[in-house]
Design goal:
This protein is globular. Helices cover about 50% and strands about 10% of the residues. A hairpin with a 7-residue loop joins β3 and β4 (about 50-55). α5 (about 140-145) runs antiparallel to α6 (about 150-160), α5 crosses α8 and α9 crosses α10. The protein has 10 helices and 6 strands.
Length: about 220
């Protein structure tokens, strides 16, 4: 734990990501020595009335938000928490992704985002393939919430078949969020998912999700 002040800001895709930061990531990062702030991406800024928040349809909108935040010299590290599945197709790196593993493809996009922003404080994280992959990692814990169903077994079967929760794929009908709603009509994205992830805990989540683990390791290194 460092005595030096370190301010990390999370720009997140929506309410679910914000809740997971609050309940899972922020306590861990604060214990490591970070001071955390967060905001949900602004998707529309009307001339009158409040801005619309959540989701993003183009890189230009996201880039604008990132650059606005980086004007704040108090921010030591700016990160984003967005799904790789459905990430704007016009974003840097998306159109020339390598034909290789999912890990290499998402890392290619993240590195391209860093190059485009060109600020050493920017450390993006795109969740492979979407935040619900972390719920798949918590198959046992989500099973506790839906006792008497086969939800745990169905999620675990998918994880085993894919080779890990981050590799449950990103098809329109087979992405983790689509599977969850198909397997369990009562599943709540903003309630059940974050509860299960929090019950799993950050250490076990990291052990199952190499891409998440790599990002947190990078953040740890920035404290030194």
């Amino acid at each position: 734990m460092t005595a030096e002040y370190r301010h990390m800001h999370f720009l997140v895709e929506g309410q679910t990501e914000e809740i997971v930061v609050d309940s899972v990531l922020e306590p861990y990062l604060q214990d490591r020595g970070w001071t955390i702030t967060k905001s949900i991406v602004t998707t529309k800024r009307p001339a009158v009335g409040p801005a619309s928040r959540g989701g993003v349809s183009s890189w230009a909108k996201l880039e604008h938000e990132i650059r606005l935040l980086l004007r704040n010299s108090d921010i030591h590290t700016l990160t984003i928490l967005f799904d790789y599945y459905g990430f704007p197709s016009d974003s840097p790196g998306m159109r020339n992704r390598p034909t290789s593993s999912a890990y290499e493809r998402v890392e290619h996009v993240e590195k391209s985002l860093v190059s485009a922003i060109s600020d050493t404080r920017f450390i993006p994280h795109l969740v492979l393939h979407e935040l619900e992959a972390w719920v798949f990692a918590a198959a046992e814990q989500i099973g506790w919430l839906f006792a008497g169903t086969d939800l745990r077994d169905r999620l675990q079967k998918d994880v085993d078949g894919a080779g890990g929760p981050e590799l449950v794929n990103d098809g329109l009908d087979t992405a983790p969020s689509k599977r969850l709603t198909r397997y369990c009509a009562g599943y709540s994205k903003t309630n059940d998912g974050p509860l299960a992830i929090a019950a799993l805990g950050i250490d076990e989540l990291r052990s199952q999700c190499p891409h998440l683990d790599s990002w947190l390791t990078h953040l740890d290194a920035r404290l030194n």
